Amino acid sequence: MDQRRVTLRPARNRTFLHRSLVLVFAASLGLAQALTPFPGAQRDEKASREASQSAPGKVSEVYTTNDSFDKVFAFYKGLYKQDTAMPPAGPKLPSGKQVQWAFFLVDGGTNLRTSKYWMKIQRPYIGGADGKDVRDVTVIQSVHSN
User: Fold this and answer.
1) Structural domain boundaries enclosing 63
2) What SS3 state is found at 136?
3) Do 26 and 46 fall within a single domain?
4) Residue 105 near residue 81 (C-beta atoms within 8 A)
5) What is the spatial distance between Cα 118 and Cα 103, in angstroms, rounded to a whole number?
6) Are 85 and 94 contacting, i.e. CB atoms less than 8 angstroms apart?
7) What separation in angstroms does the CA of 42 have from each of 31, 86, 102, 105, 125?
8) Which residue ranges in the chain fall short of pLDDT 50?
9) Same structural domain for residues 20 and 61?
10) Residue 138: inside a domain, yes or no?
C-alpha cells in the first residue's frame, strides 16, 4: 500500500503543476480577466459605437447607471487595480459642475499606456460628436486594444 501512494503522488504533482502553468499562461495573455458588470448597469449601444469609432484600434463598451459615482467606484475599487497616475477629477463643465472620473486596469497592467484592457467610470456622462450629450448618470466604459 505504501508503494501505491508513492507512485500516485508524482502523477498528482504533475497534474497540479500542469493546471497551474495553464492558469499562469492564460493570465499572462489577459484571458483570465473579464470586466465584471456593475449590477443594474445598462449597455448604451449608441455610446459604445461612438466611443469605438472615435478611437481607431480600440473597442469600447459603454454602460450607464443611475447609481452614484461613489457607489460604482467602491464596487470596482474592490475588483481592479486603479491607475492613480491619472488626475482624480476631470474637467469642469460650462455649468461649473466638476466631472468625476477614475481609471482601472482590468488586465492587471501597470498603467493605461501599456494596458490592453482598461476601464473608466465617470459622472456625468458626456457624449456625442460635439460633447453636448450631457446626462446626470454614471458611465462605465471599458476599452480593449486590438
Assistant:
1) 42-145
2) coil
3) no
4) yes
5) 7
6) no
7) 24, 26, 19, 21, 13
8) 6-8, 11-32
9) no
10) yes
